[in-house]
Automatic annotation (TrEMBL):
Transmembrane segments: none annotated. The keyword Repeat applies. The keyword Repeat applies. Belongs to the WD repeat rae1 family. This is WD40-repeat-containing domain protein. WD repeats lie at residues 54-95, 95-137, 236-270. It comes from the Eukaryota. It comes from Absidia repens.
Length: 333
């Protein structure tokens, strides 16, 4: 069972939970799931949750994001469509299209109206919500598995361990293309809150911390996590950065969650095992609520995707002492 003080969301998705995202304007949480649905929940100060709205894709929903002003939710799915839900009107419309499933969807930090989508069709496309056609398309070396945006930085992790970096001042040109520092398939990428680098997680129970600037390359490092005493190795399914401190969480197929400080290279907090794979995570805008989904992550294939699998979204009240960076003797930058 989850920690007793963590609260379960009311009416969670009945099928695999693929992504979680909080609004940056209020404590509203959006969740995408394999039952084709996007669900939106209001999280009250007591930790109670109220289902507020939902809308549908025509196939499993794989990713979700909020507009910066908190008025719209966007999502991508295996129906090859990007969809937008207007919170005020309750209407959803298609706003993006690819030739294969959309695995990543993110609003650019610079504009309310522009978003990026990444697909298994090996492209990233940029969309202005006022136009039905993409305003830019970039060919990638492989299928998109994960992507993230922070300030001017967009990081796209693809199949075959490619990592493609974009400077969003020049979004249709690849800024840098590299190979993951990890030896096995990329599962997740997540940008530092200041946009100076990113964390990357793989199926081999390992995380890489990577800086963009050439002068900072000596600060790059990787570490093992989500492994057990019997030397079993588990997938790192998601990495979420705290919005204030820049510390971060990892969650894994081993059923555990850990908070980390990359600057002091320390583990800050370990959660007890949830007895179910942790598929995805998210901090709210102030970083005092941490949401995590106990849900099958497909790391063992379709044979373990049984109807009896747990699907829960849990809310953890974050103690400042559990997520605040630890002081170390090195110069902090």
């Amino acid at each position: 069972m989850a920690a007793t003080q963590d609260m379960a969301i009311t009416s969670p998705p009945p099928d695999g939970i693929s992504d979680l995202c909080f609004s940056s304007q209020a404590d509203y949480l959006a969740a995408s799931s394999w039952d084709n649905q996007i669900r939106i929940y209001e999280i009250q100060p007591t930790g109670q949750s109220i289902p507020k709205a939902s809308y549908s894709h025509e196939a499993p929903a794989l990713c979700v994001d909020w507009s910066k002003d908190g008025t719209k939710v966007v999502s991508g799915g295996a129906d090859k469509a990007g969809r937008m839900f207007d919170v005020a009107t309750g209407q959803s419309t298609q706003i993006a299209a690819h030739d294969d499933a959309i695995k990543g969807i993110k609003f650019l930090d610079q504009g309310q109206q522009v978003l990026a989508t990444g697909s298994w069709d090996k492209t990233v496309k940029y969309w202005d919500l006022r136009s039905p056609q993409p305003i830019g398309t970039v060919q990638l070396p492989e299928r998109v598995y994960s992507m993230d945006i922070r300030q001017q930085l967009m990081v796209v992790g693809t199949a075959d361990r490619h990592v493609v970096l974009f400077d969003l001042n020049n979004p249709t040109t690849i800024f840098k293309q590299t190979i993951s520092p990890l030896k096995w398939q990329t599962r997740t990428v997540s940008c530092f809150i200041d946009g100076t680098g990113y964390a990357i997680g793989s199926i081999e129970g390992r995380v890489g911390i990577q800086y963009i600037d050439e002068k900072d390359q000596a600060r790059n490092f990787s570490f093992k996590c989500h492994r057990d005493d019997a030397k079993n190795v588990f997938s790192v399914n998601d990495i979420s950065f705290h919005p204030t401190y820049g510390t971060f969480s990892t969650c894994g197929a081993d059923g555990t969650i850990v908070f980390w400080d990359k600057d002091s290279k320390q583990r800050l907090k370990s959660f007890s095992n949830m007895n179910g794979t942790i598929a995805c995570t998210a901090f709210n805008r102030s970083g005092n609520i941490f949401a995590y989904a106990i849900s099958y992550d497909w790391t063992k294939g379709h044979k373990l995707a049984t109807p009896g699998n747990t699907n829960q979204i849990m809310l953890h009240s974050v103690l400042d002492s559990d997520i605040r960076p630890k002081l170390n003797n090195k110069t902090r930058r």
